[in-house]
Amino acid sequence: MASLSIGLSALTVNQHLLDLTGQNIANANTDGYHRQVAELAARYNGGMIGSGVDLTKINRLVNTLVEQAINTSNSASENVSTQLSTMQQIQTLLSPTDGSLNDLLQRFFNQANQLSTQPADGTQRRVFLATASALADGINNLGNSLNSLQDGLADQMGQAVDGANQLIKQIAELNDRIQNLSLQKSDPNDLKDQRDQLISKLSSFINVQTIAEDYGQVGVVAGGVPVVLGNQFSKLEMYTDQNTGAPAFRVAGSTTPLNISDGQLAGLIKMRMQTIPNLHQQLNDLTQQLVRGIDEIHATSIPLTGSFGVLAGQRAATSSTLPLAQAGLTFTPQAGTLYVSVTNNTTGARTLSALNIDPATQSLQDIATALSSVPNLQGLVDTQTQTLRITAKPGFSFDFAGQLPTVPDTATITGTSTAQLAGVYRGAGNDRYSFTVVGNGTVGVTAGLSLEVRDSAGSLLGAFN
Question: Which candidate in 19, 39, 48, 349 could, as Cys together with 344 as Cys, close a disulfide (CB 3.0–4.6 Å)?
């Protein structure tokens, strides 16, 4: 009978081994499955001859270091993939296609160049204004698209947290089942595979580490904080950082933020908190430079109808008494000289006054006072809107084109002849010219006299009879 018992044990164990081999072959391509091997032991009845063979345990072939490396690689891959997906959307917004920002800027500058050659052409002016309006709409639309993309990333963050919480709960539940079966001397290898697969999925959301525990259980650390210990788990939550106003993440009930270095959440955080805000800033910088440049041209230009009788500021200061550099202006003025031309509309006589501007010390009220010191001009501050208003006296007009006076200052000139200047200045900025008479004699009488004109750099612009 003993020999029959030994043979029966051999048949039984080998049947299990065949089943195990079939299981391994059937799941060779199953994601997350680990190959299983049997552990055998000889039966011993206390005598010299054994009683057969027993299958004592079925082990999974698992390399913990490799598993952790796979999870780490999975987190890094998902981080990069998330960033790539967002960057592709940004690339679509910025691609130089018809109607893109690049296209609208080119059209704007082309139309501005054409308008400069025929500024009185009404049709060309309307085309230019339409192009400028399209550019403004394009900039606003791009900004709104970036805002929408940023809001969408915030929604994805919330969805990622929900997905991670579901996995955390399932991992803890499987830990509980694995523990119970282990206590019953069973080998819950399939449940362990399921749990490890869930941990792998969790690593796609956030960087994770695992800790081996008793009875086949595994602890999970996410973002540097334990979220699964045995069959106990903690949920993640997204909140708003009170200091930065940015979304942050922590374990529910804790005040310690997670250290998220990889996974989908890391990619979403970088795109939403760094990449898109940087693009916003670049767009704002471009817009401010564009607006400032147009303002500078516009401020020193003269309408087709002539100089101004009244001008009212559109950009308000936060205070009319604080220095301009501290008054919250959209564009902080630069220190320099403001040239104001005032024209007598009846006689055409024109004067030029130079006002020194220092934003570090002068307020909006100081500027108004300085403008009022110019003959036939008055500067006022609207205390309700904190804006500047400039008004010419009846019969006079003004501009900031830096037009030379019709009668130059002759205080330092000796003689009886009156010098006169005429023409249109086409320089890019204000300049100072010097006039030197070459030769000896009386201007207008002595033959051979000439007048040399040089700019502030000393370069000769021309010599005139």
Answer: 349
Tokens of 448: 């051979």
Matching residue, tokens 């000796």: 414
Q: How far apart are CA 197 and CA 74, in angstroms?
A: 12
Tokens of 462: 């021309």
Strand, helix or coil for residue 219: strand
Residue 449 identity: L
Please identify which residue in the block is written with the tokens 């029966």: 8
CA nearest to 196, candidates 218, 226, 179? 218
Rg (CA), the chain: 41
Longest distance between any two alpha carbons in the chain, whole Å: 151
Per-residue pLDDT tens over the stretch 377-435: 999 999 899 999 999 999 999 999 888 888 776 666 666 666 667 777 777 778 888 88
Determine the distance from the C-alpha atom of residue 175 to the mean position of all C-alpha atoms in its chain, rounded to a whole number.
43
Q: pTM of the entire structure?
A: 0.73
Separation between Cα atoms, residue 439 and residue 463, nearest integer Å: 12
178, amino acid identity? I
- Give the integer Cα–Cα distance in Å for 446 and 95: 68
CB 294 within 8 A of CB 288: no
Give me the residue label for tokens 């230009």. Answer: 301
The answer to whether 344 touches 405, Cβ cutoff 8 Å, is no
Q: What is the per-residue pLDDT across 186-242, written as a single tens digit (0 to 9) for each? A: 888 888 888 889 999 999 999 999 998 888 899 999 998 999 999 999 999 998 888
Rounded Cα gap, residues 170 and 265, in angstroms: 20
